[in-house]
Structures are given as C-alpha cells and as structure tokens.
Amino acid sequence: MQNDISKLLLARRAFVKNISMLLASLMVPSIAFASKSSKKNNKNEDGNSQALVPAHVTEIRHWSNPSYTRLSITLNQETSYKHRMPDAKASNQIYIDIRNAALVAGATDISVGDGLLKSARLSKLNADWVRLVVNVEILKKYEIFPFYDPYRIILDIHGEGRAGIAKNEDNIHDRPSAVEEKKLEPKRERTKQGKIRRIVIDPGHGGKDPGAVGANGTMEKEVALAIGTKLAEKIKRELGIEVVMTRTTDVFIPLQERTSIANKVEADMFISIHANASPNKSTAGIESYYLNLAKTDKVAQLAAHENGTSLEKVSTLQAILFDLMANYKLNDSAHLADEVQRALYKKVTSKYQGSKNLGVKQGPFFVLVGATMPSILVETAFLSNEMEEARLSDQLYQETTADGILKGIGSYIMSLKG
Predict the structure, then answer these.
(1) Cβ neighbours of residue 33 under 8 Å, at least 6 residues apart?
(2) 99-137 pLDDT tens trace
(3) Of 51, 127, 280, 308, which one has the greatest count of Cβ atoms within 10 A?
(4) What residues have CB less than 8 Å from 312, skipping those under 6 apart?
C-alpha cells in the first residue's frame, strides 16, 4: 500500500510539473492560483492584513440539480482564500476561509436543503478572516475557482442528492418564456433518435453588458439575442427538441449563472451565441470554440473580451483549468463544435460571398466552465469588420446563421451512437 501511495505522489508531481511547463510555453503568462491572487490585497505573506482595506462579502447564491450544486460568493474586491474539508472521512463539510474580509448587511447564511447542499454559514473567524462553512449531504468531490468583475468565489459541489428535487425555476431569467411557465419534465430514457432531449441556448452578453459594438453601433448583445431566438424556434419546430434560453430579453446575467442554468435543467447541450471583434478591422470570418487552454495570444484576448475581464485573469483561469475539466465533455464538445462550424460555414457561404472559415478552436471561456454537457461558443462573424457588421444586423443573415447552427446540431445528433 505504501509503495502504491508513493507511486501516486510521484505521478502527481510529474503531472504538475508538465502542466507548469505547458503553461510557461503559452503566449499568455500564467499567474498564481487564487490563494496568491490580487497583489493589491495580498501584500503581507505573514497573514498580517490589518493595514489593508477589507473585502466585503456581499452576497451568496446557489443553483441546484440532483447531482450538482453551484455556490457563488460575491465580494466587493479581489482577495485570497483557502479551502479544505476538516474531516475527510465524514466528507460532509467544506471550509472556505477568505482572507482580509468582512461581513456586511445582506450577506446572510443560506439554508438550501436541495438533497445535496444543506446550508452555507458565514462567520467572522478573527480580525483578518471570514469563514464560510458549507454543509453537504454526500460529497463526491468539489471544485473551487474565482470569477471576476465582480469578484466571486465559485464552489461546484458534486454528489448524490435526492432524485426529483426542484429545479429552482425562479432562478432562471425571463420567465415565463425561458421555461414556458411549466415544470420541466424529467428526461425520459433516450433512444437513438432521441439522445438529445433538452438544449440550452445562451445569447451572449445583455443588459449593462453590450459586448462588442460595431462602428455603426450594432451591439453584440442584440445580435446574439436575435440569432439565439431564431435558433431556439427552429430547434423546437424542426427537431422537436425542448429549448431553454438563458435570456429572452435584454437583461444582464452573470457568466457563472449561464452554465448553472444548463446544469440545473439537465440539458444535453449548451450553445452560447456571440459576435466577434478584432483590433484589425479587416479580420472576418466564423469560428467555434470549446473549453480548453488558449493556444495563441489572439484566443486569450478574445477570451478576455468575452469573459469581461483582463488577460491576467484569463491566465489565472488557465492555471486552474485542468482541475475544472474533470466533468467537462471535452471530446463531445470538440465534436459538436466541428459539426456546427462546418455546417454554419457551408450555409453562410451558400448565400454570402467572401465568408471565411476560421475553424474550431479552444479557449478558456468563463461561460463554458462547469458545464456537464457538450458545450460550445459560436462566434458568428466580426462586428469590427464593416461588411460583417452590416450582415449581422440584417435579419436574413441572422436567419441563415441560425439555419447553419441548426444543421450542425442535427448532424451532431445523427452521428451519436447507441
């Protein structure tokens, strides 16, 4: 047994070393994980942070389904944290200690009782630390990572909750249209013709976040919603598949909530719709992404734009991405992206000359983190390109784009085995 443990430890060290070497070779410089983040709020390594302005815990939210719960702890500024399970044998508590933090009115304990997550309790541990104690039923594993703008600590809990728990539709935006004012039926046993029963369409950005804006004022959030709405209607009508949209109006939805909606309704597919932008006004074309490390600085810059944050924060996500990929359907997502990219490009070029196929790529997009189903992000064209901005604002191009994505979804479904 001791030899087996030693072998495992050696393998883990080699794995970490290989990851470090890979990150060092990337064009985006890696920075430390959350426990060493935020230079402005983590200057004293000896733990003495009394001279610093404390971060305030302002809100705790959660999203649930039978085997997965996401907890989001929002703070008014970035700080560091550490986490542990105090009793590894019991595996029913997680401690998250937040450094140089304070509690404010409105940041209250929550009682969940969703069959997986029991409760989350905040307390002031001492002058420098706030502790969140998370009580769970049966814990298989958990993942913790930061989101930014605003700063949030995200805790994804995986376990075995009670079957048939509520889906918390009150947390899904834009009722009634997002869930059509009815309880979502549990997914029945799938047949070869019905492997995909529920798809979540995510129109990117929205509300206070316009996304990219073209020279003539066309906003990404409007284009994404128009294409997403058309796509949802086509999926329901032509494929007979249920669709849930993360938004159906011009509202802002935090990135961490979008995949949580997909997980919560037990979707079989997640597609996020976007319009691209580049400093080079001549850049044009269609490209599709699935979650992974950025291979080039251009991909990292796009991820920073879509994440609504900086390149530094993208590199933070890159450094922890391997731990977040355990439940991600990597091969299925790559397959879905390939089918959608191929069909979308073919459909667009059948009606519009000069369209370019930029291919399938990988990138660290916040909106895809935590998805437990095949999930992709589609960049339909470039708003920064004058010709493509005109196309994106045209309903015919929006219809054509929706038709292309629909065709790709259909091809993906037809290729599934079993």
Answers:
(1) 316, 319, 320
(2) 998 887 766 777 777 777 888 888 888 888 999 999 888
(3) 308
(4) 31
